[in-house]
């Protein structure tokens, strides 16, 4: 090995990246050549000068704090839920809000199963709009719609008319979601259709939560009084939330 | 994975490397304010893309994002500093004089070294930081910076030549510049 081919290898050797085959040759050359010995010594000193702890910058504490705070608030917002308007808010005691918050966290576990369900609900909504399958019972009268479900389902869904709130009930149908028969109530808001899927679920209440929209359809989910509710529509998020709040606040029909 | 679990995993695997992220951003951007901006943006992006992280080297993964974020930021804010289609030959520092090479380099004070690194073109500076301060291998740097290993080696060699010259000048001429 001569100086010309030894020189470029010196740094690589100092970086610990020279292959074993050439290390012996290079060491032998450095041993015999004063110029390369000096280069070898210099590169080591340079590396040592660069390795000083004082050269490394440490992230400022406030930067670390800000990043963690920002990430945590992002997580708190997803999936986003709305506390609705304050009137509705004040109807619920702060204790209940705290309970709901805990329950919401519980219900948000296993999102993959939930995502699958959301997709199924949206598909069902889309299907109802495409085929002549939207309504099994056509009636704007809740007193007709509710009894119609009797004997077709093993539960009695809460049926409410929201005509006064501009969400008139147009009918209902049987649907099949998440491996079971469910009630689908159909409401209208101007030209928009809202499907509200209802089935009993053995868990306690969860506040209305806006789910990430799928294929342009908005989905809001909540549960109360042993039933789980999924509202889906092409209505925008806030109008759909208004519908959900009106539905939740309306009187349940007693058969 | 639930968002909260995802954040917890992120805090445990990625955030321990925040010092390394800031260090790289600080060396690249050249000042604390911009470095904080870059580090913050990179960290948020890293969380967003945490699903793509396959559990390899979390520090290298985060620094890749910091580096990309920095270059995007540079393009937006100081596009004049980018060498464009980087021509390694054009960026090569003039040959170190025979004199400088025969100088016995002495261990240099941190403040002197810091100034010498800061004077390097950004494409050389990042190689020095990744290799000497962060201790990555050539292969890791090549992956991180998305360049061939040969480019890593040639940029490192040129960066060292320039550093050598600067540091030798500090002593060789006997006077501080």
Tell me what the structure shows:
The complex is a heterodimer of chains A (255) and B (177). Chain A has 255 residues and is α+β, with helices and mostly antiparallel strands. Chain A has helices at 3-14, 20-32, 34-50, 61-77, 86-90, 94-107, 111-130, 142-149, 237-249, and strands at residues 137-138, 169-177, 180-189, 192-200, 206-214, 217-224, 227-233. Chain A folds into two domains: 3-55; 93-249, Protein Transport Mog1p, Chain A (3-Layer(aba) Sandwich). In chain A, strand 6 and strand 7 form a beta hairpin. By secondary structure, chain B is mainly α. Chain B folds into two domains: 3-81, RNA polymerase sigma factor, region 2, helix turn helix motif (Rna Polymerase Sigma Factor, Chain: A, Orthogonal Bundle), CATH 1.10.1740.10; 88-172, Arc Repressor Mutant, subunit A, CATH 1.10.10. Helices cover 69% and strands 0% of the residues of chain B. Chain B has helices at 3-13, 18-29, 32-48, 58-77, 88-91, 98-102, 110-118, 122-133, 138-145, 149-172. In chain B, helix 3 (32-48) packs across helix 4 (58-77), helix 7 packs across helix 10 (149-172) and helix 9 (138-145) crosses helix 10. Chain B starts with a helix and ends in a 5-residue tail after the last helix.
Describe how the helices and strands are arranged.
The complex is a heterodimer of chains A (255) and B (177).
Chain A (H helix, E strand, L loop, with lengths): L2 H12 L5 H13 L1 H17 L10 H17 L8 H5 L3 H14 L3 H20 L6 E2 L3 H8 L19 E9 L2 E10 L2 E9 L5 E9 L2 E8 L2 E7 L3 H13 L6
Antiparallel strand pairs in A: 1-2, 2-3, 3-4, 4-7, 5-6, 6-7
Helix pairs in contact in A: 1-2, 1-3, 2-3
Chain B lengths: L2 H11 L4 H12 L2 H17 L9 H20 L10 H4 L6 H5 L7 H9 L3 H12 L4 H8 L3 H24 L5
